[in-house]
Amino acid sequence: MLNFSGEALSYGRTTVLSDVDFTLRPGERVVLLGRSGAGKSTLLNAAYARMAESFPDIALIPQEHGLVPQLSVFHNVYMGRLDAHGAAYNLANLVWPFRAERRAIAPVLETVGLDGFARATVETLSGGQKQRTALARAIHRGGRVLIGDEPVSAVDERHAAALIDELGRRFGTILLALHDVALARRIATRLVGIRAGRIFFDRPTADVSDGDIHDLYRA
């Protein structure tokens, strides 16, 4: 589905990652690990840009959520499927949400712990609630692939694990960046460590030791 071979990946004009050899195959659940600024987001963004050309049914959870603050939770979640309808339908649903759309989104909101928040505007939500809204939008969109940048960082530990499990059930192929190693081990079939602008390790989860993790994060 995705292949980088010896490539340099940039943020703007700055090269962030060098000599990138990375693949993503159907059915894999790959988690990127590494210190802040190591280049995880750069790899995710490059992966999304390249895969979207061939796989339009990709769900994305960006690190900054990508929500419209002035709109309701319902409308932000609905936007996950904007491309499923024409402009006239989308505009009408913006003015007066259709019952069928409300019914489709209600169970998704319940899944992420936002039952009863459909009419709340995003700007009134806490950080964790905004993140759950972004999760709900991705779940509502569905598709073969999920790409997510720290999708549960603002959620408490117990609910974060439940949400990660839910993403694993919903999507066949997953590429995430996570800061929580336990959550990474929980969902990943493969772990990729990024350090100092390069891929430090890329192995099946069972083959990554605690020592490998320590070396990845050491100063």
Automatic annotation (TrEMBL):
InterPro entries in UniProt: AAA+_ATPase, ABC_transporter-like_ATP-bd, ABC_transpr_LolD-like, P-loop_NTPase
Gene of this entry: phnC
Single GO MF annotation: ATP binding
Domain ABC transporter: 2-213
Keywords in alphabetical order: ATP-binding, Nucleotide-binding
Gene3D superfamilies per UniProt: P-loop containing nucleotide triphosphate hydrolases (3.40.50.300)
Entry protein name: Phosphonates import ATP-binding protein PhnC
Pfam family, one: ABC_tran
Record organism: Paracoccus acridae
